[in-house]
Design a protein that fits this description.
The protein is of the alpha/beta class. It has 22 helices and twelve strands. Strands 3-2-1-4-5-6 form a six-stranded mixed beta sheet, with helices on both faces. Strands 9-8-7-10-11-12 form a six-stranded parallel beta sheet, with helices on both faces. Helix 16 links the parallel strand 8 and strand 9. Helix 12 packs across helix 20. The two termini are 35 Å apart. The model has no long low-confidence stretch (mean pLDDT 92).
């Protein structure tokens, strides 16, 4: 399947070269990639090309560390001005800043000093921390291993390389797939240099977020535009579309990896009494704790109040376990197996020796739990909106993109978080209006963000974590007659609309 794409890839390269022109422009846009995936690089370069034309700039492309001939050819077909040789860039940076780098490596002695690590007041340590969590698929960092230190070295080299590139070429805007992990370093540099940053890509929705000022940089990369929400949340057609989407998502029919696992019709459905009997619960209120994937960017949320998700979960369990009048249940993340975290939660609960915490099966349908439990505690994931839609009060320990709505009980700090947990039984139920808003937010984030894929000639493919991509199918369709032109025009139109309306996100209307 994937190995027979060469013919269509070559066709795409040739048509791409014919379509894009080489033209010297006064400004520079830095496009960065942290993967050698051909589809992801194709789409980010398509977006980068549109942005560079709107901003009257040329592209400087900084690819993934590992050199790849096909990515090189791909970038050249988009007529990038400079294709950075990362190996040479890192080697030069290492010798140029050898003393500084050595000093920093000596100062970083454990996970805590890494998380708080700054260079010239730029907080990059928290992103390096997350980078190591994801790279080595670990839940937390205390002692640093040699492999961790090597990863820190790579990230510091990345910092100096990108910083010097910004200074040398007077970069005005930056385009990245995401603003976490090692790309979080670029995010902090862009904030420090007051650059425009386009990031937070969703390849399926074809969306991203624009950061332009201090306020933008203080928000999550999925934070919606309030003016847009005020208009849309009163629109009957939008509300109708939201209802259709919600029904599809909770039925298990949405083609998204978390939703397919959480709401599968094959999963067990339990009512409240069946849940009580199965897990020997009391007649007290039921509090459900929903952990995140432990290695999945805990510092992606602004104002995060814990070092990582493991620290958050341990503190949450210990505080709630002191309340003997409630039932505390916890469920593994539906996609834990995709991150090699299956079984870790069970081990952690046994280690903590908290006997009043009941781990329930991951095979229980999440929809039935939403209709059963009394309260939900999470750090800031999608489940916060899902449970709120079902009328379940939600306690948050971070600032997710939906966290500014007052009916979510968002902790300001650790002390406030403990107060919320200790008084969880007194939190008010949601009103019908608040439930509708929560549902509208779900629809906005999962369906209404982005560019219409059909108009952009990219509607023929959907990406799911854990599933193999069909490169032959992708490049065959993207290379069809007029698709390159129509795709470029559609993306340009959407960007111009976003800019003209002073929005930070791309929307489908």
């Amino acid at each position: 399947m994937k190995n027979n794409y060469n013919k269509y890839f070559k066709l795409f390269l040739n048509r791409n070269k014919s379509f894009y022109e080489t033209k010297e422009r006064p400004n520079r846009t830095l496009v960065l990639s942290v993967t050698n995936d051909l589809i992801f690089n194709t789409i980010i370069l398509k977006f980068g090309k549109v942005i560079s034309e709107i901003e009257n700039s040329n592209i400087i492309f900084f690819p993934y560390f590992k050199y790849n001939k096909e990515i090189n050819k791909l970038a050249k077909s988009f007529k990038v001005l400079i294709y950075v040789n990362v190996f040479i860039s890192f080697a030069w940076t290492f010798f140029k800043y050898f003393f500084n780098i050595s000093t920093y490596l000596i100062k970083i002695c454990d996970g805590s000093t890494l998380e708080s690590f700054h260079i010239n007041s730029i907080p990059i340590g928290k992103h390096i921390y997350d980078f190591i969590l994801r790279k080595y698929r670990i839940p937390s960092i205390n002692k640093l291993k040699f492999s961790h230190r090597f990863a820190i070295l790579i990230c510091i080299l990345y910092y100096f390389s990108i910083r010097d590139l910004i200074n040398k070429h007077s970069i005005k805007s930056v385009v990245t797939l995401d603003n976490v992990y090692i790309e979080g370093i670029v995010f902090e540099l862009s904030r420090s240099f007051n650059l425009k940053m386009y990031s937070g890509f969703d390849i399926n929705l074809l969306t991203l977020h624009l950061f332009e000022n201090d306020f933008d940089y203080s928000k999550h990369c999925r934070t919606p535009d309030q003016l847009y929400l005020n208009k849309k949340f009163e629109d009957p057609f939008f509300i109708s579309e939201a209802n259709n989407f919600i029904n599809k998502r909770f039925s298990g029919d949405q083609n998204q990896h978390d939703a397919k696992r959480a709401f599968s019709q094959k999963n067990i459905k339990l009512n409240r009494q069946e849940l009580i009997e199965k897990y020997n619960l009391s007649d007290g209120k039921i509090v459900l704790i929903l952990p995140h994937i432990f290695c999945d960017a805990p510092h992606a949320y602004p104002s995060v109040i814990y070092k990582d998700y493991k620290c958050w979960l341990i503190d949450t369990l210990r505080v709630l376990s002191n309340n003997k009048g409630i039932n505390i249940i916890i469920k593994e993340h539906p996609s834990a197996s995709l991150y090699d975290e299956e079984g870790y939660l069970e081990h952690l609960i046994k280690t903590l020796n908290l006997n009043n915490i009941k781990l329930i099966s991951n095979k229980i349908n999440a929809k039935s739990l939403m209709e059963t439990v009394d309260f939900c505690v999470t750090c800031g994931g999608t489940s916060g909106m899902e449970y709120a839609y079902h009328g379940v009060p939600v306690v948050l320990a971070s600032s997710p993109p939906y966290g500014d709505f007052e009916f979510f009980n968002k902790a300001k700090n650790v002390k406030h978080y403990h107060e919320l947990l200790n008084n969880i039984e007194n939190i008010k139920k949601l009103t019908n209006k608040e439930r509708v808003i929560a549902g509208n937010l779900l629809f906005l984030f999962f369906r209404h963000y982005g560019i219409d894929k059909k108009t952009a000639k990219l509607n023929f493919y959907h990406f799911n974590l854990g599933e193999e991509n069909d490169l032959s199918y992708f490049f065959k369709n993207i290379s069809k007659d007029n698709n390159l032109i129509e795709s470029h025009l559609a993306i340009t139109k959407s960007f111009n609309k976003m800019i003209n309306n002073n929005y930070k996100n791309l929307y489908k209307d």
